[in-house]
Design a protein that fits this description.
alpha/beta, binds flavin-adenine dinucleotide, 31 strands
Amino acid sequence: MDRRRLEAHIRERGLEFFSRIGDAQPSLFNKDWWTGRVMDACMRNEEFKVQLFRFIDVLPSLSTSDSLRRHIEEYFSREESVPGVLKWGIKGVGLGGRLAMRMLSGAIRKNLEMMAKTFIIGETPSATVERLGDLRKQGYAFTLDQLGEATLSEPEADRYAAGIHALLDALSEAQSGWPALGEGEGALDWGDSPRINISIKPSAMYSQAKAVDPAGSVEAMAERLKPIYRRVAEAGGFLCIDMEKRALKDVTIGLYRRLRSDPEFRDYPHLGLALQIYMPESERDLERLLEWARREGLPISVRLVKGAYWDYESVVADQAGWPVPVYTVRPETDLAFERSAELILRHHDVCHLASGSHNVRSVCAVMEMARLLDVPQDRYEFQALYGMAEPFRQALLDLTPRVRLYCPHGEMLPGMAYLIRRLLENTANESFLRQTFVEGVEAERLLEAPQAVLERTGAQAASPASDEAAEASPAPSPAGEPEAPGPFRNEPHPDWLLPEVRQAYARALEGVRSRFGRTYPLHVGGEDVETDEVADSVNPARPEEVVGRICQAGPETVEQAVAAADAALPGWRDTPVRERAGYLMQAAAAARSRLYDLSAWQTFEAGKQWPEAYLDVCEAIDFLEYYAREMIRLGSPRYLGEVAGEVNECFYQPKGVSAVLAPWNFPLAISCGMCAAALVAGNTVVYKPSGQTSVVGHTLLQVLREAGLPAGVFNYLPGRGSVIGDPLVQHPRVSLIAFTGSMEVGLEIIRKAGRTHPDQPNVKRVIAEMGGKNAIIVDDDADLDVAVPAVLKSAFGYQGQKCSACSRVIVLEAVYERFLERLLEAARSMPIGPAEDPANAMGPVISASARKTILEYVEMARREGTVVYESDVPAGGYYVPMTIVSDITPAHRVAQEEIFGPVLAVMRARDFDQALAWANATRFALTGGVFSRSPDHLKRCRREFRVGNLYLNRGCTGAIVGRQPFGGFRMSGVGSKAGGPDYLLQFMDPRCVTENTMRRGFVPPQEHPAL
Ligand SMILES: Cc1cc2nc3c(=O)[nH]c(=O)nc-3n(C[C@H](O)[C@H](O)[C@H](O)COP(=O)(O)OP(=O)(O)OC[C@H]3O[C@@H](n4cnc5c(N)ncnc54)[C@H](O)[C@@H]3O)c2cc1C
């Protein structure tokens, strides 16, 4: 294709396009109306925009006029009164007082609902069908999208599917009354295109779909989609699978292929797939799809869009430590759009193109490329969103015969989420529509080729394609440069979308399984020590499977280990801080290089699901990297005071031999965190892993050994708590005890450590992280789409065996029934089984005795409240049913005692005051959560919800090193927060040296080294 000629055509066509638009304004931007004024204010005032969009988000949940008024005041009238723009055109606002506020609130709601209605074609099938008929009369075809809440459970997925079936019934009935569009023959639009066209959300097809389990997800989604597609085919219609968030991209493509190649449908070609081209990965996906279509002899149809989740994908990637998966400058996306459109047009014999853009340049590029490539009219069409840019769509229809509008249908509540996506899109600086209709950028500029824009602005360098290599490589290994490590960065979280990540995990499981049953010796004073007594560590999902055989320490080996640690102390204490930090960073590098292996051991020995296990190892690496840097910070002496003739030097020294008593629930992360802190601060360590996870404990030894720690500095001492716990805690040479575990054991350690031995050189310090009875409050305006899955994950993630787990959910009366219904349906949908199968959301608890204790609590729950859900569990293995008990108040023991298993108490609170009082009404103060969209309630919780880690509008587990320092107070523990700036201080004693630098009245000029 002659590029210069193409450009000239695009320019010409574009100018014609703009001339047809003329001065017309889309209703969204028309300042003669309320909506236009409000949009204008959003674009001029970012703060107002944030408040407004947040308010729109909460609006559907405000069911009473009081709550509506309260929220309007909270969101908008912090200073004096509701911003003028919101009152614009509303009668009676001048009156003032309560009545006026009520009128104003009602009017604002009405106006916002009207705004939503501009994007939603109808709320009921009959209204929708009628409006579609009108659109068709104007010459537009349609694709209908059924709006819905997030699909959290299988019944919700069924209801979504049932809604589509109902729509299809209404459409089938109506279509005979719709004359075909265009000049073709027969009932088909333009002679070849089905009149009924629907778009479906893949995430609504299966509530448990997840990137980590693509095969299972595709299977389950296809199961639900097949009857819908069958019905579509019966009606002679077309079905397009939308593309949503990146995490489900490959699952969605898999679903498309699965359905397209299904023997039942191979001969029915009316199946389309949306591809989001703002992701560089999508071009590769497109190429593969085209190859596949050709190979299989299956014509396909692709709706090419730029993508609606740009901000979301950027933020998620940033939080997970991934390279940005989307282009970072819009011309890159525009260019990819044109490249991909051309590719499809060149393969028009196997792929039909639907161009989904409101960008005149992009659209004209497609038109002109199609013309120059002689692509027949029936092989491409143009699509636009209903309610966006009416003048654009009219001009489009004037210039091309085939225009289809994407029409959302359904209720207002889910419609609000859709509205926000559209408003975000339209108010973004990058938006073509905004640039055209609001900024008034001149046509020539708007029609400029994306490549030329990139060259002109030099923006290309910022795109992820060029950053990819640098970003994808792990942080530079600090091993060679302990002098100057870079800033701390969290270890990237696993991106399960990547096949190589999933395959590596599956391979690691196989590899680890082949090493089951080995014997693990103690490690004392740099030597491996075998003992006669050996204990088996088993797979909790199959207790007959021995993961490893662990040599068991006795009181005499405690003596040897403490002696070895004591002997190594002076040398280690005097090792320069940067060198000690260097060992930690070497250990981090070792752990990073074996990340999958280390995770796989946890899946088997601790029963941790893939994501949970992988994140545990990430956290361990974070602790190593973070504490190394923290110690470098704390290792430089500080000079205090600036008084002539005096130097005050403050610095730290280690406490001495440290006993680290670790739990099984974060068998590497917490072990590693406590040990790394002790070590880098200059202490030597005797480490007792939990009896249930001593093989994982041994992996910590392996990592530290690889780092080359000197002999005796770290001693691995597995053994029974009842045998070696007391000798270790009470040993006179042990100066510090770092413990994480239950409150009972923690308090016992504190008591025993307080008894001083005559030969004891130090008063022992105990750092004890203990339990929690953590509550999440669900306010009456909470977003249940977010709250329900977050509560489930917090309560049942890793079987509820986290000290941070949610064990009480306190729900306000107004949303109680709805919340409980959705919670129960979602809980019932969660598959339970061995953690090694990534399809399972919950696995076995750690041991037979844990199971027994938890089951006793389930019985107690039955007596104290109403057990509203008790799941089935697989046979064999230490499984406990996922249990939800309602009618619980703070007076009940299940609301007070830590259960450490998958038991969730649901409490119905009268109002927010009561919810907050109940949340605080336990002896513990570890984590807490609040789901609320009331700024005032959130503010109040910051102050009055007294826990160590409070999470607003997210789940209450999963603290991240350096971002959410973790730990509580009251009976939840003593000590400063792990993964935070105060943690290392506990492992050291501060010292201060003061020198009088004056001799006979003479003061050296530079008495203060820091000056
Ligand atoms: C019929 C139809 C169906 C659709 N179906 C889907 C779907 O299934 N899934 C989906 O995700 N979206 C879908 N969309 C929405 C679509 O993604 C957006 O409407 C579209 O991206 C807006 O692009 P534009 O060409 O109209 O506007 P433009 O203003 O030209 O482009 C805006 C787009 O550029 C991208 N962008 C914005 N900022 C940047 C940046 N800094 N760097 C790089 N790129 C940037 C974003 O994708 C943004 O949406 C659909 C749209 C239509 C018309």
